[in-house]
Amino acid sequence: MHPALSVIAFTTASGAGYGLLAFLGLLAPMGWLPGSTGFALLATGLALAAIAGGLLSSTLHLGHPERAWRALSQWRSSWLSREGLAAVLTFVPAGLFAAAWVFGGVASALLGLLAAVGAVATVYCTAMIYASLKPVQRWHNGWVAPNYLAMAAMTGALWLHLLCRLFAFPAPAVALLAVVATACALALKLGYWRFIDTTAAASTPESATGLGRIGKVRLLEAPHTSENYLLEEMGFRIARKHAARLRVIALVAGFAVPLLLALLALLSDGLAGALAAVLAAPIATAGVLVERWLFFAEARHTVMLYYGAAAA
Amino acid sequence: MPIQDMFRTVKEEIDLSPTVSDEVKFTTCYMCACRCGIKVHLKDGTVRYIEGNKNHPVNRGVLCAKGSAGIMTQYAPARLTQPMLRVGERGRGEFKAISWDEAMAIAEGWLGNIRRTDPRKLAFFTGRDQSQALTGWWASQFGTPNYAAHGGFCSVNMAAAGLYTIGGSFWEFGEPDWHHTRYFLMFGVAEDHDSNPIKIGLGHIKGRGAKFVSVNPVRTGYSAIADEWVGIRPGTDGLFVLALIHELLRADKVDLEYLARYTNAHWLVIQAPGTAGDGLFARDSEGRPLCWDRNREGPGDAMAADASPAMVGNYKLADGRDAVPAFQLLAQRYLDDAYAPDAVAERTGVPADTIRRIAAELAHAAFAEEVVIEQPWTDWAGRRHERMVGRPVAMLAMRGISAHSNGFHTCRAIHLLQMLLGSIDTPGGFRYKPPFPRPCPPPIKPAGKPGTIEPGKPMAGPPLGFVTGPEDLLVEADGTPGRIDKAYSWEAPVAAHGMMHMVITNAWKGDPYPIDTLFMFMANMSWNSAMNVPGTIAMLTDKDEATGEYKIPHIIYSDAFASEMVAYADLILPDTTYLERHDCISLLDRPICDADGAADAIRQPIVEPDRDVRPFQDVLIELGARLGLPGLVHPDGRPRYPGLYRDYIANHERAPGIGMLAGWRGENGETEGRGAPNPKQVEAYIANECFWRHKFEPEERYYKHANKAYLEKAARFGFIGAAQPIILQLYSEVLQRFRLAAEGHGTVQPPERHRERVRKHFDPLPIWYAPFEHAAVDPAEFPLHAVTQRPAAMYHSWGSMNAWLRQIHGRNRLHMNRVTAEGLGIADDDWVTVTSHHGQITVQAKLMEGVEPGTVWTWNAIGKRSGTWNLAEDAGESRKGFLLNHVISELLPPEGDGLRYANADPVTGQAAWYDLRVRVEKAAVPLAATEPAFAPIPDPPGMTAPPAISRFGELFRRRRAGR
Amino acid sequence: MTSLPQPAMGKKLGLVIDLDICVGCHACAVNCKEWNTGGHAAPLTDRDPYGSDPAGVWFNRIHSFEAGDGAAGRTVHFPKSCLHCEQPACVEVCPTGASYKRSEDGIVLVNEDLCIGCKLCSWACPYGAREYDWDQGVMKKCTLCIDRIYNERLEVEERVPACVSTCPASARHFGDLGDPDSKVSAIVRERGGYDLLPELGYKPVNKYLPPRSPRTAVGSTGAAASLAPVVKAEPGGFLHWIDRILSR
After folding, report:
1. Could you tell me the CATH number of the domain that includes residue C160?
2. Phi, psi (5° rounding) for residue C64?
3. Packing angle, helices A144-166 and A37-58, rounded to 10
4. Rounded distance, CA B582 to CA B564, Å?
5. Which of B29, B155, B847, B953 could cross-link to C37 by cystine, CB 3.0-4.6 Å?
6. Which pLDDT belongs to residue C1?
7. pTM above 0.95, yes or no
């Protein structure tokens, strides 16, 4: 699948934003976070900005962004519609929670909980947009939603930890959260990769054409010698070697380094710990961008079976 | 953002019965040579939709990809827009726009001068011309023998072999009996002729469960749906067919009754080696051929209805000479083990068991599955037959046979096979389409013998015809060719379609003489219609060092599009598209009949040209009148056809009562076939959806060569001179006459250097010999055959300016057998060099399963020269497309005395495109574009820049919606 | 409602494509383009039509496959357009309701006025039936010629999709696959018509008729493996016919 930058940026940013929002909504009412107005402003601002920026970015790939409002109507069947609806609905408790906390100095447990539930629901909807697509076996599986949720939690926790450290607020719980979330995300990502590497393709040129009854099926000629939309959108292919290298980069930047940094931060209250926490979040985010790019690049769509692909 | 709409599902309102168009007109398609009837829908004067005309005899409502893309040809940015005169050097594409008055005056000046001095100095050649009834006649009126259309590099092997053998031919001039055949054997058929009828027919026979066998080195297109694909080696079909004949003869599975009734199998052939009569038919004092009549146990009239002819045996003639029936010679030859399946299997690549099985299947279908139609009919001798009995084996062959230097004999071999099975024009067999069958060959001789050409005078007859012996050749007393293309010379005696592929080479050399003007119409002779493209370009631009003049001093060219040839012409006469003109699909040219009816058709202008262009036929008629050609002016010099081509179509008479169109003749349109000109004839055609069809009565539909009712009708319609039976020429006496001349008999004999070649190839019975290039080059050095195929969705070069078709075929690759390619270390999309004895190209490879292992192939005419056809200079057609033409030489390697024959069939002069042998190697480094690359040619003046995006059709929708 | 409708009376209009007869001529694809570029979904935009990388919107594309190795295999031309599935995920994923399945006849359409151009439907279609129009910013697709098949301005026999009307080999059939007594249902039964990618569960309405088996085996036409020779293999063998009495 073609890795569209707008969608990659959207899912990464909104994932981090919703992760952060969820933790703010849950932890702030419990008093586990810095109480200053500055922190409240910065943290909720960052979360909402990442979410809004991500959503805005996602409209960039629309043919008619001015009609985006129509996308709420089909929530009964469409995960994309549900995602839109969840995003819009989440803004209500999230906005109220932020306003009350920043302007009233009260972190409402109810609003926080609602915002957190909304955040989780929205990320889940996002994941399900992909996970519901049967033609893409590498998306249509049980690993995708946990991965999305875990990576949102990981980036959200790392950013929250960074903010805490910026405000010189010792938050071992947050540090622990970051470590746990990162470890979970790492495990889930490895599980996902193992799954896609070891699962036999669900569909083949033989099943796509029904000609397997004759023998091995090979493409003789594509319909056109020139490009088309399907090839541009679904025909993206990444070389195995290139993918392996990117996986290493994603693994190191997205998970291993952040995990080590988070551990360091957990163990060190000092400058080293602070520095580690400050570095962990942006590095992880960059790693997740690479991971998300790979999530698209390594996905194979059945339509390519009609264009010479050996499996999908 | 209407809040109330936010969660509502809006239901679409659909207009289920929108208006399609505001006007519908009928005409004839010209997106390929098939000539289907089309129904053109117009909306606000723009072509909205083109569909097949369901009433039309050719396509019965269907339409192919090309025809369906007509809109994009009509509105292609590649259309020429105005007459032009060259201002820069040839090939640079530098022109100035001129008016039609200037253009006509220039052409008149050049041609008038030629006609006053030596009319032969005009070489007038037309390409995919569908108005040869006009253009050939025009050349004759002008007085030049140097005329032909493109048949010489296309189909003449099939036309000549057919017309000299069965009085009809393959290609689109006959058809399998789709409704009754049990076994259909197809040889080398591509998609550009009769394509819709063939597709309709294949659908029928597959549905009926008849067996369809395709003999073709490549398994694409029609071959893909064959019940059996015989992946034969190119150029060996003749051997395969003769092995089938061997098997049938050995098993006595031949229809001797059919042979005795309808062929010359029983005619006695004189056996007197070394004498002038050897191999000719024994004849009585009145010239009637003789047979050995069992009823009288003596020689008798072979044509007599009551004879009981012997098919074998040695007989003494009254003059004491020996004679044997032709069938005996045939049987003697093909019973020989040289033609046994085991002997030909390796050479043809077809396993001996397969050959034996197919022979058995042919015999089974022919003799065990006889088709009987309960329809009485009367034969030529007046005998009534209660039913029509047929041998349901049908065959069809096209370019895969014709484009070899052994194609004439191979085609004759296929006709021989059909005759032996008794299937020609019987139910289930191969059927003639009128005006065929005609006498073998048709009684028209080529005009233009040296010494008969006079300045200012028309020729005595047409430039193209059918020779029946050496005395009909157009040669000087010393054997020097009389025509610029050397057709009807000893180098190509039966060149019934001329040899357009040799014109530029010969004219450049001045061999046999220099010409002044080369006048061409829709022939891309500097590109995909030329063998040896780089050499051709060099010849077109070469100058005489002494005078500084071009070796070919003037080139006039008419085309509708900015093709590669435009830059190499001096004067451009821009033509219209097919939707902007009158045309005439005449029975005098290449008809559109079907086996059950005679038909012809017209084109009518559907839209007005939006450019300063004129139909070529109008231009030709006006030019002829300006030149004072006798048929085009009244005695007082006034133009005879002031209404130009439309006027000519209706009012010109070729012979009394015979004109361009056969329908609605007579002053009031009351007759058909023959009748006085009808001034309202074109209107009558338009009223009948632009075609005429006369349906044959059931009793006329089979055995046309011997069917009294049919023959009488054919004579009445002018298809044949008299209602005489047409005798199929299993043994060709015409060929033997040429052979005798080569053996030193007669007054017209070949020059010494041509004798052996003529003797060898003018065998009265079909022979097989290795195609010339196969024999001439080292098989170890050039181990592979290379051929082209025509894609179904692209007609020659005419599709690349079409925005839709070029998406389907916008580049081409060299297809190779997977196992062969892997052996050479070649994978998909690898760059490979393709080297012939003549040249080299570098292209990309594509591996496949369904190709004979020793053959490589590519789609024809996809490659384009950069800058032409108003495509971007970096268009895929020029960067990733290529022509095999670059590695095909128009000449064979030199003989001992330095003479280089044309790369052509020695009988007909048919260009031997498919004789090519190559070596394929993986290129040292991958390239960015195919090689050779030619310098881009700039657009001619007056062309509009092509749009970056095409939204064709948007307006129709907006208007429908009232926006 | 992007939730799927229950088709009225089970009507399922669709195509049956005969792979045994299709010669891959692209007639259906081009005629479809021609009809539809001025029809319901007009225009079928072409990007860079005369340039180095032309790419257009087409509702029907003809693939060519080879099945099986070497000479024993078969070349199969394979037209592909929207299959008007019974379980069209392209409809279910659409967030706006632009993509819908008609309850009247099961035809899957796009309401271009609602389409936001998110392209998700094209991802959800395993067959590649969706065509995005970059210029118009909306998704387009085969309409089964909705503007022909009910069009009262056309003659009755013309009320079939353009691809069916133009197919020279009669390799395409149009009809109601929901009606077991229809001609198309009968052909599918007789010829073993099948679904593409059945494992995905989309239940395509369009069916493909498989290529018939090659007939290269001895006896496939009733003939023997070879003909029994009766003429002697010797120089005078032709005298076999010396006593034949023939008439003209």
Report:
1. 3.30.70.20
2. -125, 130
3. 140
4. 26
5. B953
6. 42
7. yes
